[in-house]
Structures are given as structure tokens and as C-alpha cells.
Q: What sequence folds into this?
């Protein structure tokens, strides 16, 4: 049975429908990431689960209870915001215990819960300080600690790392993930950062224009994208795309060459083929290869991104090892074949995977 369930949830702001009948089931103890571009509806979905916005239609269940009409305080959830929302005049200890104090929990119990959470997060030395005397990373830990002391049914994170620098983001996401596992919690986490999603999630829910494009494990959405949108959104560098047309013998003709072995594509059907830069391997020119002139190279250490342009002007990228990078010279041609089973085909009209 799902621990969190959204059934045909819709949300309108005036005449604008932000969520268009979302169905979503989240398992107990699962770390689920809502991922997508700005304006896709992921933060709105989180706010509806939290009760911070009313649904326009549909139902939301948490642990089998219909919470659609309940106030946030009645849903037994804890939310960590992007801006931390700490009270500047309170100490760290007072901030962390505020939610329990509002519930009239005895002071001794509050102190025990706060110190237990502070030990867990390694912020005990900060308890007497005020938020203004803390770094961004320390404030984030306090906000997480405030959520922990409530021992909620559900943790909700709304882009909690976006205000941190790159190094601190990496460290803090590892801390959040370890904390999730130690608490055996159920967590919904919103981000627009695909790296966060891929490294943290048990399941990723990719949203686009108010609907769910795909739901699955990080491996599912990366290696088997359900639509062109998912394929283009996941992966860095981004996937290469080429227009194509199906032939009677099950091949795909493209401006960059013929790709064989696609019986699911009908003769005359317009498609787009997608190839991840990491799945292009240096090869001799021939079938199922792409050839282009080297325009630019970016060395990343043990590997490099090669920018190329085909004879007809199509641009694409390939990721190669450092040894191959050293052999590739500007203005020279280079040919690549596609790693076995890694060419993706999408219908041009619907954008869906074929």
C-alpha cells in the first residue's frame, strides 16, 4: 500500500491550471525526488501535500488517511524550505524546539529531543547561537533539525540546497541522504538539479507542464527515457538529437547517416534519434556512425567533451577518454559509432519513446 498517494490532483491559480490531474504513489521509507524545469509543478505538488495550498480537485492520502481538507498542522509532516525560515531572535535550540513548544510538550522532553537531533546533525556546539551567527550550511542543518525533533510521518524538502555553494551542496546532500536512511523516513524532495536527483533518489518523478512525464529509478529515467523531454532533461552533456525518417526495411535515414535495426519504426514515420555523448565511441565511418569536424574540445581531466559539426551543419557532442582527446585536432574529422543498445528513438509528433 502506498504511504503517500495523489489521486487526480489538479491545481488552478485563476485560469491557469498548474497541475493537470496528477496520479502519484510513494512507498513507505522511500526517498522520492520531484524533478523538472522551472514552472513544471513540482513545488506546487509539494505544497499541496503539505497543505500550504488547497487542491482544486482530487485527493491526497498520507498513511492511508485522506488529508485533502486537513490543515498543515494536522497532517503530521515536517517541511524544510529553500530559505530555512528560522526565527532570527531565537537561539538554535529555541528554533529547533519551537514546533514542540507550540504543541505544549513539556520543556524537559523538548530539551531531550532537541539535543538528540543536534547530536545527530553535529550541531550541539551551536545551540546557544542565533541564526545570524551561522553559515548557510549550519542554518540548513538547524532547519533539518527542527524537522527531525517533530518525528513526523513525512519529510518534505523544497529545493533545500539551492542557496549553498557547490562544495557544500555535495556535502549536505550526502548528510540528508544518510539522515534519511538512519531515520528510516519517508521523504519527498523537490529539485531542478538532476545531479541531486540521480545521486539521492530511490525513485525520480519527472514533471513537465503540470503532468508526470516519467516515474522510475534513476537508472530507468537515464537509460530508458520515456519521452524526448526526459531524454533532453536528464544527462550532462545533454543528449544529441537528429531528425530521421523510417524506411520500409526497418532502418532510419537521417542527415548524418543510416541507422539500422529499428522494426518498430514504420516506413515514412518521422522520428528523432537520441544519442548520449557518453555513448559515442570512436570508430571507422560506416553504418550506424556519425562523422563530424572537430570544432572545440573541453578537457575535464580523465575525459573530455568534443564539440563537432557534421557536413550538413548538424552539431553534436561526444565524450572521450583523455588518450583519445589528445589525438583529436581542431578542424579534423572524427567518426563515432553508437554503443550497443544505446540509441534512443522518439516519435517526432508525440515525443514518446518508440
A:
Amino acid at each position: 500500500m502506498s504511504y503517500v498517494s495523489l489521486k487526480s490532483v489538479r491545481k488552478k491559480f485563476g485560469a491557469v491550471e498548474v497541475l493537470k490531474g496528477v496520479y502519484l504513489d510513494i512507498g513507505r521509507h522511500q526517498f522520492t525526488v520531484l524533478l523538472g524545469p522551472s514552472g513544471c509543478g513540482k513545488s506546487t505538488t509539494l505544497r499541496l501535500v503539505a497543505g500550504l495550498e488547497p487542491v482544486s480537485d482530487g485527493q491526497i492520502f498520507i498513511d492511508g488517511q485522506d488529508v485533502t481538507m486537513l490543515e498543515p498542522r494536522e497532517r503530521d509532516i515536517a517541511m524544510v524550505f529553500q530559505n530555512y525560515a528560522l526565527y532570527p531572535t531565537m537561539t538554535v535550540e529555541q528554533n529547533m524546539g519551537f514546533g514542540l513548544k507550540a504543541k505544549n510538550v513539556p520543556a524537559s522532553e523538548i530539551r531531550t529531543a532537541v539535543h538528540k537531533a543536534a547530536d545527530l546533525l553535529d550541531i550541539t556546539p551551536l545551540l546557544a547561537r542565533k541564526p545570524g551567527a551561522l553559515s548557510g550550511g549550519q542554518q540548513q542543518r538547524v532547519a533539518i533539525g527542527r524537522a527531525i525533533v517533530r518525528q513526523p510521518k513525512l519529510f518534505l524538502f523544497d529545493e533545500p540546497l539551492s542557496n549553498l555553494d557547490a562544495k557544500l551542496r555535495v556535502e549536505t546532500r550526502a548528510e540528508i541522504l544518510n539522515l534519511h536512511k538512519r531515520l528510516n523516513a519517508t521523504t519527498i524532495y523537490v529539485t531542478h538539479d538532476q545531479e541531486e536527483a540521480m545521486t539521492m533518489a530511490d525513485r525520480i518523478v519527472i514533471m513537465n507542464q503540470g503532468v508526470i512525464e516519467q516515474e522510475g529509478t534513476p537508472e530507468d529515467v537515464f537509460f530508458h527515457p520515456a519521452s524526448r523531454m526526459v531524454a533532453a532533461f536528464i544527462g550532462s552533456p545533454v543528449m544529441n538529437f537528429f531528425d530521421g525518417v523510417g524506411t520500409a526495411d526497418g532502418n532510419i535515414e537521417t542527415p548524418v547517416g543510416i541507422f539500422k535495426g529499428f522494426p518498430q519504426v514504420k516506413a515514412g514515420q518521422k522520428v528523432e534519434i537520441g544519442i548520449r555523448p557518453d555513448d559515442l565511441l570512436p570508430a571507422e565511418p560506416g553504418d550506424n556512425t556519425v562523422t563530424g569536424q572537430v570544432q572545440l574540445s573541453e578537457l575535464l581531466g580523465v575525459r573530455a567533451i568534443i564539440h563537432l559539426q557534421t557536413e550538413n551543419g548538424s552539431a553534436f557532442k561526444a565524450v572521450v577518454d583523455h588518450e583519445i582527446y589528445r589525438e583529436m585536432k581542431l578542424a579534423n574529422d572524427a567518426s563515432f559509432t553508437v554503443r550497443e543498445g544505446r540509441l534512443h528513438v522518439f516519435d517526432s509528433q508525440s515525443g514518446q519513446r518508440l
Q: What stands out?
A: The CA atoms of residues 274 and 344 lie 5 Å apart.
